[in-house]
Structure formats: C-alpha cells, structure tokens
Specification:
There is one protein chain. By secondary structure, this protein is an alpha+beta fold. The relative contact order is 0.13. It is globular, with a radius of gyration of 23 Å. It has helices at residues 11-24, 27-33, 44-53, 61-67, 76-83, 90-106, 192-200, 204-218, 234-244, 269-275, 333-340, 345-355, 368-393, 400-405, 414-423, 437-449, 453-456, and strands spanning 117-126, 137-141, 146-159, 164-172, 224-227, 247-252, 259-262, 265-268, 287-293, 305-313, 321-326. The protein is built from 17 helices and 11 strands. The two termini are 34 Å apart.
Length: 465
C-alpha cells in the first residue's frame, strides 16, 4: 500500500522521512493516548499517515477518487469517520508530539544559555460554506481590519531563534451568538468534543492560559512568553506571570485607556512617553523606564507586577515609536528587543501552513471536529518540515563528532530584531504591527530554501513566494 504517491522520483526519500518522523517522535503511541483509534478495520495510524502525506502528492483525496489514483485499502467514508471522531483529543496530540520534537531533538542542539520562548498569536482561518459549517462566525481580521467568516486560529508555539515548533491551538468562534453564522448543535459538555466547543466560545486571554497550562503539564518549558499588542493587556500579563511563573515580553498598544504605575501615578503609555527625556543621537533605543502593571482589582486579587518598558523610535519618521514591555527587569534593553524579535517566526509559520501545507483549502468538512483534526494534521506536517530543515542546516544534528566540533546555529541578532521592529512601523501596517506581503514572502522563502531538495520539489509553492 502506497502512503505517499509516486511523484517526480522523490517518493522513496519522502517515505523514509515520514517513517523516521513517525518512529522517532512516537506518532503511533500519541494517537493511542489521544484516543484516535478504531474498534475494528483499518488502523487509525494508517488513515492518519495517508492524510498526513496528502500534501506531498499535489492531489486531494477527491481528485484521487476522480482520477482513479486512490489505491488505499479503505474507503472515503472511513477517512471521514476518522476526522469526525468526537472522542479524539487533538489538542493533546499536538502537545505530546511537539514536546518530543522540542525536548528530545531541538533542545539537544540548543545551549542552555539560549533564550528559548513560547510564542502566542492568532491568524484568520477562513471557511467557505459558512452557513452549514459548524460554529463559523464573523471574526475580525487584523490584516485587512475587517470582519470575515471563519475562525481565529489561536496558536501556541516554541522557538529557539532558529526553528519554530507549533505546540497546540484552538479554533475560536465568536462568543456572541449573533455573530455565529453556522449551526451550533448541543453536545455533552463533559466529552472531549463538548470541551473543545466550550473553548471555541471562550475569550482569547483565557484560552491563552489554557494552552500554556496544557503545554507545561506535558513537559514543555521556555524562559519567556511573547505576543503582540492584541493580547498585551495588564490582566493577561499578570495572569501569566503570577499563575504560571513565566516572564512576558510583549509589544504595548498605544491605548490611552490602559494605565501603568509610573513615578507614583497611574498614567497611560502616551503620558509616560511625554514625561520622560529621550536619548539623543543615533541611540539603539529611545527610552527605557521601570513601571508597575496593575489591574486595580477592588479585591486586590491581582498585585502590581514590576516591569521594564523600552521605547524604539522609527528613524524614518521621528514622531513614530513603539514600546515593548518585559516583566524580567534584569534584561538589558538590547536583550529585550532581541528576544522579542523571535516572535516573527510564528508569522512565517502561518504563512507556510497556508501557502504550502493546505491549512485553509485542505479541509472542506462542515464538522468542527473534522476541522480541528485537519489543523492538527497540518501542525504535525510543519513539525516534520521543521525537523528536516534543522537536519539540513545544523551540522550538530549529524552525530556526536559533529556536535563537538561544529558551532551552534546563530541566534537572531539584536540588529535583526531591531530591523523587524522598525519595518513593523511602516505607514501601511503601523496600526496593527504586522508585516507586509513582500516581507512575509521573503521570510517564508528563506524557510522553504532551507528544506531538503526532495521536499522542496514536492511542496506546491505559488510563484509569489
């Protein structure tokens, strides 16, 4: 039985890579632990492997059925039943696999003094056929600054500055019933499927805490948590710092309604900037101040958290600036900027998944369970690419001799991080601090170029990349 179709002479190398990935990172055992199993008939791992390998064939299951190239020993209904399973815990599955990838592979190639980080962000998961797709909602797209139909794909990942590994995710629908466009069937809230749907209607900051707790329970660890302005609220930062004992580095939104304790007063970020004397000349940063983050909760449940705030000026537009906040005050200003630069790897991840790995167009199912399963499969595909990209670029992965004589891959530099921040202040994107299409295509192409040749030749990449 051929799990990877015969395509342009690379099927043997691809099959070997998939076999090694499944063996080294315990895919079969993880599927069992997450209850992705069948009572009889074809094994669940056979179906998972078929779906996992589809992206390398350049043909969907539908086109294989239409052209007569579908040669598997199971029917399409078997695949649909596997995807629609309400008992499979896909969030746990990606968390388990990513823990093995990070702790048993990536971490061995990364020195202990390297600042590895958790990265949190969301991206639009658009969905066609929204009237019949379960829980599809009107969600706000940060890029176009408009409402679109689909989900917010909330994602937690890990990076050491070279490789990015997705950990877990949640497809978020709207919490407002009026914005839910698709059907919302009643499901037992005690089941995995029920809990999955409860999380889908939960507020983003609460989902962030849940994803981090799940990751840390599975054995993931990192020194910092990074996210952008959309999640950098005082409550979210304090919850992560106080409840999870993780330091946060985030970009601060220029919001006049969010206050920080500075020099004994409650002031917003614009007032802090106006009060302080800026560094002159060609300084690498504009201003650095110590503040305290507080939600001013009446019951005192959220104590004030000390933090350092670093302001960076746009050299092409002197009145424009951004601010980064860090709950680890021991870091220098340059270190804060450098570490925050690692957040951009998740943007490359989203672009790669949508452009190469069929994240959006690879699933036409109307079931929320099937859409969740599809996202988990795409995340696992990216882990395979990330592992093979590291094998292809890091000589230390070749064995003990090369580990001893080869240098560790370089971390992202301060200048690279600073350049990313400055580019984020372009007029066209300064409201939401995203990257332009040209910049994202450049970063994605760089990731693609570092993959082994046999993988590059089998991934469909649009010319725009």
């Amino acid at each position: 039985m051929s799990m990877i179709p015969q395509y342009d002479g690379n099927e043997h190398q691809l099959s070997t890579s998939v076999n090694n990935f499944f063996r080294d990172f315990g895919i079969v055992a993880a599927l069992r632990r997450c209850r992705a199993e069948k009572a009889s008939g074809v094994s669940a791992v056979v179906i998972f492997r078929y779906l996992f390998s589809l992206v390398f064939s350049h043909r969907s299951m539908y086109m294989q059925l239409q052209t007569g190239s579908f040669k598997e020993d199971f029917s399409k209904n078997t695949v649909y039943r596997f995807l629609n399973s309400a008992k499979t815990n896909w969030l746990r599955f990606t968390t388990i696999i990513s823990e093995k990838v990070v702790n048993h592979f990536m971490r061995d190639l990364t020195s202990d003094d390297r600042n590895d980080v958790f990265v949190i962000d969301d991206s639009l998961y658009s969905k066609a056929g929204y009237k019949h797709s379960e829980l599809v909602s009107k969600v706000f797209d940060h890029v176009s600054m408009t409402f679109k139909r689909g989900f917010r794909l909330m994602t937690l990942g890990w990076t050491d500055g070279n490789s990015f590994v997705p950990i877990n995710f949640a497809l978020l629908a709207s919490g407002n019933d009026q914005n839910v466009l698709g059907p919302n069937p009643s499901i037992d809230r005690r089941t995995v499927a029920g809990k999955r749907r409860i999380m889908a209607r939960t507020k983003g900051p609460e989902v962030i805490i849940s994803l981090l707790k799940e990751a840390m329970y599975a054995g993931h660890r990192a020194k910092y948590v990074l996210f952008d302005t959309w999640f950098a609220t005082p409550k979210c930062i304090i919850d992560i710092k106080e409840n999870l004992s993780l330091d946060v580095i985030a970009m601060v939104k220029k919001n006049a309604k969010v206050y920080y304790q500075f020099e004994g007063d409650d002031v917003n970020i614009k007032q802090i900037y106006a009060r302080c004397k800026k560094r002159r000349g060609r300084s690498k940063y504009l201003l650095s101040v110590d503040v305290r983050i507080s939600t001013n909760a009446p019951d005192g449940s959220h104590p004030a958290v000390p933090a350092k705030m670093v302001f960076v000026r746009n050299r092409n537009k002197r009145k424009d600036w951004i601010a980064i906040i860090s709950t680890d005050q021991s870091l220098s200003e340059e270190e804060i900027i450098q570490i925050y630069g690692k957040r951009w790897s998740i943007e490359v991840f989203f672009k790669t998944c949508k452009q190469m790995l069929e994240l959006v167009n690879g699933c036409r199912s109307l079931s929320y369970d099937a859409m969740t399963a599809h996202v988990a499969i795409v995340f696992t595909r990216y882990m395979l690419l990330s592992v093979n990209e590291r094998y292809d670029t890091d000589e230390r992965s070749l064995g003990e001799l090369f580990y001893l004589i080869a240098d560790e891959l370089a971390d992202i530099t301060f200048n690279q991080s600073l350049q990313l921040l400055l580019e984020a202040m372009l007029d066209t994107v300064q409201e939401f601090f995203g990257l332009t299409d040209d910049q994202m295509n450049t970063f994605t192409q760089n990731f693609y170029d570092r993959l082994p040749e046999y993988m590059r030749s089998t991934l469909a990449v649009p010319a725009a990349a």
